[in-house]
Amino acid sequence: MDILKFGGGVLKSAKEIMMLPNLLEKYRQKYVIIISAIGKTTNAFEKLLDNYFINKHILDINILDNIKKNHYKIISDLDVDNKDELYLKIDEVFNLILNVFNEKLSDNYSKAYDRIIPFGEILASTIVHKYLQSKGFNLEFLDVRDLIKTDSCYRDARIDWNKTQSNITSEILTSKSKTFVTQGFIASDSYGNTTTLGREGSDFSASIFAYCLNAKKVIFWKEVDGIYNADPTKTNEFELLPRLSYREAVEQAYYGAKILHPKTIKPLQNKNIDVEVRSFYKTELEGTSIIDISEFSNDFFPNTPIYIVKENQILISFLTSDFSFIVEDNLANIFSKLSNYGIKVNLMQNSALSFSVCVDNIPEKVLPFIEEMKKHFDIKYNDNLHLITIRHYTSQSIERMTGNSKIILRQKSRHTARYVIKPLL
Length: 425
Hints:
The chain is of the alpha/beta class and 425 residues long. It has two domains: 2-223, Carbamate kinase, CATH 3.40.1160.10; 306-423, VC0802-like (2-Layer Sandwich), CATH 3.30.2130. 37% of the residues lie in helices and 24% in strands. It has 14 helices and 17 strands. It has helices at 14-17, 20-24, 41-54, 61-77, 83-102, 109-116, 119-134, 161-173, 202-213, 246-255, 265-270, 328-340, 363-373, 395-402; strands at residues 2-6, 31-35, 139-141, 149-150, 179-183, 186-189, 194-196, 217-222, 243-245, 274-279, 288-291, 306-319, 345-350, 354-360, 378-391, 405-412, 416-423. The strands form three sheets. The protein has an eight-stranded mixed β-sheet with strand order 3-5-2-1-8-10-11-9, with helices on both faces. A six-stranded antiparallel β-sheet has the order 13-14-12-15-17-16. The N and C termini lie far apart (51 Å).
């Protein structure tokens, strides 16, 4: 069995959706298709939800209408005969969205987020399912919320692997169907509430299905030719990496490489499942393979430096007000509060009198965290920073990435150099 993941970056219009039949024709074995929200739909739903909270729980119907028009436009452009049926299906989803808002959403932003944003995946998978059915594909539609079970940590839910394994295997392995379509990014907790797996978590969804089904292969169909040594949207100097070890892929994802979700690789490595990152638009290309490579192989490390840039960073430093040492009790307090606010540490560094963390500058998390920590520490911070990570660095690669900036903090190990920088205008 293969798991095929299609992101919103490729399924962004009717033109791309109509490319699916030719791509799928070559798959004769059992497979599961994982679908993300179409195009920028997630961003649009986030804007809808943000406005709802800013405007004291008043729904901006114009934003919702624009989302609906975008999906109507896709249906209008599809070469299918059953458009009226598809319009009705989409109308049902939008009526459900209105009902959720009319019931009044939770004041807990994260819980409200997980009720609204996943509708993007529901809309996309509904359209893709009905379109492929019209082209003769006997696909069974699965609501992933019945299968992937999590805790109630909204916006970054943790998987209940035992329940998820049982649900997926009993649903798919016993089914007479050979092909399935379902959603990425979303799941549900033990109370039936919709949860999400973290932004860009659809890749992780594909990994979960592959792990539970002992899949032969996972293919991530992307708008790029494979995995590069640098973000091709940020620079013209990049190289395709044809092969990566699981370890290298995990390292790159951990440091913030955007091609795969950070949680994606580990379940696949655990069962030695092959991974391919391939171009949706150039299906003849082999892309990048992520496989089990011995650490003694010449392929274990890429031959070129890997550049990873995380923007919108804030460096927060904790100092004891009485000049006492930063000791284990202080660190336990800091990490406990970081966990409570759902803040992931991208880099940390300590000295005798201070401890610093570099994190994504998400105001709704970071600002209240800083205010609370001021009760216990003297706090200093720098924002509008970039975190630069260079795997397999050289002196030239370091100069290239930091030469025109102010270095705030630096760390270097055998294979990785990291810099928190303030870009100079």
